[in-house]
Amino acid sequence: MRWSRYFLPTLREVPAEAEVISHQLMVRAGMIRKLAAGIYSYLPFGLRALKKVREIIREEMNRKGALEVYLPVVQPAEIWQESGRWQLYGKELLRFKDRHARDFCLGPTHEEVITDIVRKEVKSYRQLPLNLYQIQTKFRDEVRPRFGLMRGREFEMKDAYSFDKDEEGANKSYQDMYDAYCRIFERCDLNFRAVEADTGPIGGSYSHEFMVLADTGEDIVVGCDTCSYAANMEKAEVRRESIETQGVEMKELEKIYTPQVKTIQDLTTFLSAKPDQMVKTLIFQVDGRPVAALVRGDHEINPVKLKNLLGADVVEMADEETVRRITGAPIGFTGPVGLKGIEIIADFAVQGMVNFITGANEVDRHLKNVNLNRDFKVDRFADIRQAMEGDLCPRCETGRLKITRGIEVGHVFKLGTKYSKAMGATFLDADGKEKYIIMGCYGIGVGRTVAAAIEQNHDENGIIWPFPIAPFHVLILPVNMTDSRMVETAEKIYQELLAEGVEVLLDDRDERPGAKFKDADLIGIPLRITVGNLAVSEGKVEIKFRKTGEVEKVPVNEVTQRIKAILSAQLK
RNA sequence: CGGGGCGUAGCGCAGUUUGGUUUAGCGCGCGUGCCUUGGGAGCACGAGGUCCCCGGUUCAAAUCCGGGCGCCCCGACCA
């Protein structure tokens, strides 16, 4: 491709609206342009990167025997009503009516469509297992789209759905996809971790998220510094620390006056005590009934854990009025002592505490030297808090947990029979009995993967494409377009590389060298061939690696061979 | 959905507080010519605007008032 005939509009300045580096660079490097909030066009250069990722995904999906399909973006309300999600999905589901006033939506995901196809076509266990996937546009009307392609409303997603006759088969399907995902992200040269994720109330199922590690990520990743344990914040387990409390004397319970002291922070200052000597009592509404949850003052409650523990559908913080009704005091003075008619659940860490501080269920009062069993009873101890940096690893003996940020690029999920039951997708098994198909679903954000790759591979000058997803592998840069010898040399190399099938971009623009070099760094093509004075004087050109800055001086007639050698090594 | 910010040429911005001295500006980019060619050169000339939209106040509105729309950030939310 000749740059002069290409559509690659680069920007010198950072667009005001772009906050994160990947977004800035994708706009500056002429990859994308915004049409509306969370809705982007891909320009040719950006599309080439997207296609590279698509192709890697296809190869790995096909390798596992998944079959590509292409499902509609516009979907009728009926199948969503059947699955129950027409009601449940909320405003993220963009709905509209056609000319006959029939209800439709733009597909945010495709479980309904695929289940509809499979229930109609699959009748026998002989047709299973089956794995169907597509790479296609999704639309989710996000409340707040942000960070360019990171959280768009319209975005490209690879979604796969597996169908199996039994648990064993479903587990294998899941593992196949897990393995495929690892290969895909490895091939994209991403530093990622597969983390355990919460599955919600479906039960018995499990799920992993594939997180690309990046400071700008929206998700929190909890990982062990020693073993391979990793989970997202919702799911991350905490190991019980055994604390010796035997022999510590219980002091006498004491009520203290604490005017306007409502938070742990306030208490810390007011009593000059440490947060880990306090117990936070939080009132939750769990499917409509109140529950008190106790965690140590320096810990945060994890509502998802509470929800799973109680097998509840909805867990939310109680409002001011409810708290008053139950505790007799405003928010900020809640404590477990004297609470009646309410289940009390405490985090394991509370179990090892003696003589701690809690709210007194009375305005401007707290209690000191509170003790378990003597002053109140806990109905259940459980792991209900969020993991913290430095916590013991729940899996290995010596590890400590570390907290990092990540970008979720993929998610594998065992669905079980949720959709097959809702929509009646059954098959006749070998034993002659009708059974529900066991499903799994597996998604990858294609555009988000590209953005994540940039987030992880750039420097102050621009993008540094990993070879496997680079829009072009080689950029030829003739320094002076008015020097016919340089132009001819560049042209010769360009033709040779083209003939060899190398993906090459020739910067034949009549720009000054400085501008060309800046653009070259910005768009980040992994190899740059500089055709300059050396080509005229010694018949040599420079091959520069964008990533390392390393430069090789190579005779013009050896360039093509050298490039081929580098590419075959890099692309394996 | 709560809080904050922004909207002036393709991009980045000044001007708005205190209405008129601005014929609406600056830098970059864009076009033409000269000159220059190893890290975003220089000179000259030039094109390019519904100052987000609608309404109001006023002799006079980019500027003040009311309403609307759009975009960005924080939070909540996110099968």
Features:
572 residues; alpha+beta; BirA Bifunctional Protein, domain 2; YbaK protein; Rossmann fold; 9-stranded mixed sheet; 5-stranded mixed sheet; 28% strand; globular; RNA-binding
Give the secondary structure arrangement, pairings included:
Elements: H1 21-28, E1 32-36, E2 39-42, H2 44-63, E3 67-68, E4 74-76, H3 77-83, H4 85-88, E5 95-97, E6 103-106, H5 111-121, E7 130-139, E8 154-164, H6 167-187, E9 192-196, E10 207-213, E11 219-224, E12 230-232, E13 254-257, H7 264-271, E14 279-286, E15 289-296, H8 303-310, E16 315-317, H9 320-327, E17 343-347, H10 348-351, E18 356-359, E19 365-370, E20 380-382, E21 401-416, H11 418-423, E22 426-428, E23 434-436, E24 438-445, H12 446-456, E25 458-459, E26 462-463, E27 474-478, H13 484-499, E28 504-506, H14 513-523, E29 527-531, H15 533-537, E30 540-545, E31 551-555, H16 559-571
Parallel strand pairs: 3-7, 15-17, 17-20, 27-28, 27-29
Antiparallel strand pairs: 1-2, 4-6, 5-6, 7-8, 8-24, 9-10, 10-21, 11-12, 11-21, 13-19, 14-15, 14-16, 18-19, 21-24, 22-23, 25-26, 29-30, 30-31
This protein binds one RNA strand of 79 nucleotides through residues 9, 11-19, 34, 36-37, 85, 88-90, 92, 108-109, 111, 140, 142-144, 146, 151, 200, 411, 413, 415, 441, 479-483, 511-521, 530, 532-533.
